[in-house]
Amino acid sequence: MAEVDVVLSVPSQQDFDEALSSAIVDQVASRISAQDPTLWGPEAESEASIRLSWTHLPESSRSLVGEISELREQLLGKGLDHIVLCGMGGSSLAPEVICHTAGVALTVLDSSQPDMVRGAIADRLDRTVVVVSSKSGGTIETDSQRRAYEHAFTEAGIDPLERIIVVTDPDSPLDQQATETGYRVFRADPHVGGRYSALTAFGLVPSGLAGADIGALLDGAADAEASLYADDPSNPALQLGVMLGVANAHGVDKLVLSDQTGHGVGDWIEQLVAESTGKLGKGILPVVVPFENAVNFNPSTSDSVLVSIGTDEAPKAQSGYAAALQGSLGAQMLLWEVAVAVAGRAIGIDPFDQPDVESAKKAARELLDGAGSVPSPDYTENGIDVYGSGSSLAESVRALLDQVDLDAGYLAIQVYLDRLAYADFAEVREVAAARLGRPVTFGWGPRFLHSTGQYHKGGTPNGVFLQVTGAPEHDLPIAGRDFTFGSFIDSQAAGDAAVLRDHGRPVLRLHLSDVPAGLETIRGLLE
Ligand SMILES: O=P(O)(O)OC[C@H]1O[C@H](O)[C@H](O)[C@@H](O)[C@@H]1O
């Protein structure tokens, strides 16, 4: 087997072959390797010119391997063996899958939900090292998580300088603040965007400190480079990217992913695909399913490409577009980055910006600052506050589901709760998909805001949104801020709902005062 293998199935070989030949004539793969910013058209050129350094990270990141391993030894020598990563989206999804694949433990705190933050802090604080990762250095969740840990260490008589390590871009607000405080700072290459940063310090520092073999990860990617950058019909990234582009041109704009390895690479691919392609009213909607025979994968819908990871036989897709992928994680990461860049060119978008993420952040900030008006529920039933039309819960849920376009639409279930405590609730994805016979996505808030959130607002406008929020067991203040974690996550949900509605997307928000009982009620209503 080559470093990474792709087996494709397409409904029309001629369409695919023509598109592949034209990508080869245009030298798309070798020009990506050479970091040519003109590939995505004049409008994308200035962003692309500062975003392409990911193409040769297997070489440029190599010196980090020794540095991180030395630091890990020092920390272990002090009995510090519990690594926590605070970060969102591109700053946490890669280390999560790298560590899972390597079979090493990493605690990922990518939430503003108060019970989750308290739970992370209460876990082995005396042995904990916290990696605070933010490319922009301005993400409020990450800043709040850092404050929470600094406060907890100080309260416990532990010097935060001994325990906090920062990964950020040079001169970001976090870099300035951390340098002033005296934290150890790893500065990453600013010419790599967040979702393409898996093989930079963002992916490598937390994973290496947790014990993953990051040298092998880079080796896997390095070994695949020659095939991924060849202007040749056998190039697996070119094949995958071209297939996604051709499918999109035929209205097949959902990508249903099933990971047979069980390592969770789907969540990382989800951000890469959704944020890179979902804009200007176009894009590819990733739908991550939990197992191969999950609804949406089997049976699939006629607007879905199916991709099976960890197998060598392309699955049977109703649309005819399918792929099977196998290879080391490092090779797969580079393969997907190249494939998404290729598909983005075919679809006609800039794969390196995320123009609609900021709007939800702004709406949340306005609510926190008291500048926006806090919405009131339309009615309350059985302890569930309902923000949406209808006069009963059953009617409101039915009215929302009735708005899913049965030919092209999807339902996104967005749940702003403790994702560890209520992990089982993700099973409602299956329930809703079986009822609708349409693609259904499931995301934990605020995590998904940094992943599929861009697509929901900027991508193909055929989504319908069920938002679930809930009262925390106990709220938690944020040191040095005039808002709590609880008010922050509420503002994030309300802010995103407001922006979705402004974009004309149907949204039903259900706020649960008794979370376990409320989730049971929702599960019943979706059946
Ligand atoms: O690493 P940070 O700057 O904190 O950003 C974390 C995330 O923030 C936003 O949601 C961006 O859209 C993501 O692409 C990014 O990964």
TrEMBL record:
The keyword DNA-binding does not apply. It is an enzyme of class 5 (isomerase). It catalyses: alpha-D-glucose 6-phosphate = beta-D-fructose 6-phosphate. GO terms for molecular function: isomerase activity. Pathway: Carbohydrate degradation; glycolysis; D-glyceraldehyde 3-phosphate and glycerone phosphate from D-glucose: step 2/4. InterPro entries: G6P_Isomerase, SIS_dom_sf. Its EC number is 5.3.1.9. Keywords: Gluconeogenesis, Glycolysis, Isomerase. The keyword Cytoplasm does not apply. Belongs to the GPI family. PANTHER family: GLUCOSE-6-PHOSPHATE ISOMERASE. This is Glucose-6-phosphate isomerase. It comes from Aeromicrobium wangtongii.
